[in-house]
Write a structure and sequence with these properties.
With 150 residues, this protein is α+β, with helices and mostly antiparallel strands. It is 48% helix and 22% strand.
Length: 150
């Protein structure tokens, strides 16, 4: 072996050794990451989904009852024109029923589908500035729900 070959070997062997050490380190860290870090990340993801996604999966809280009206709407997202054709009472009659149930002034009102039933929903503000939301059945003008707010 001449001097040139000896110098190449002295450079190549440490490079190969260093490469083997780095690959071994990478293999070990990948193994431990998969063994210990992956389950931890899964637990963190599940806790996060559980914490932030709870409302998305739960229809109503314990305080709220499900609205049951007289006109069932099978498909959520039904167009307003289709909903209006299903209503048996007018907007004006529903507004009168809402004002009779909660004294105050109607600020907003709409026809909508809630819990698969057709309702009129009204926001009412009282003389002492308290808000209420009143849900009126679009079939018989019965008060289905009154929610008090700030």
């Amino acid at each position: 072996m001449n001097a040139h070959e000896a110098s190449n070997t002295s450079i190549i062997i440490p490079l190969i050794t260093e490469t083997i050490h780095r690959l071994w380190f990478l293999t070990l860290t990948t193994y431990y990451a998969m063994k210990y870090l992956k389950p931890a990340l899964i637990v963190i993801a599940l806790v996060t989904i559980g914490f932030f996604g709870y409302k998305a999966f739960v229809k109503k809280s314990e305080n709220e009852k499900e609205i049951v009206g007289s006109i069932r709407v099978e498909k959520e997202g039904t167009r307003l024109t289709e909903l209006a054709s299903l209503a048996k009472i007018s907007f004006a009659d529903a507004a009168k029923a809402a004002e009779a149930s909660v004294p105050g002034s109607i600020v907003k009102g709409k026809l909508e589908s809630e819990d698969h039933y057709l309702i009129y929903s009204f926001k009412i503000i009282s003389a002492n500035k308290e808000w209420s939301e009143v849900s009126i059945d679009a079939g018989d003008a019965k008060v289905l729900e009154i929610e008090k707010g700030d």
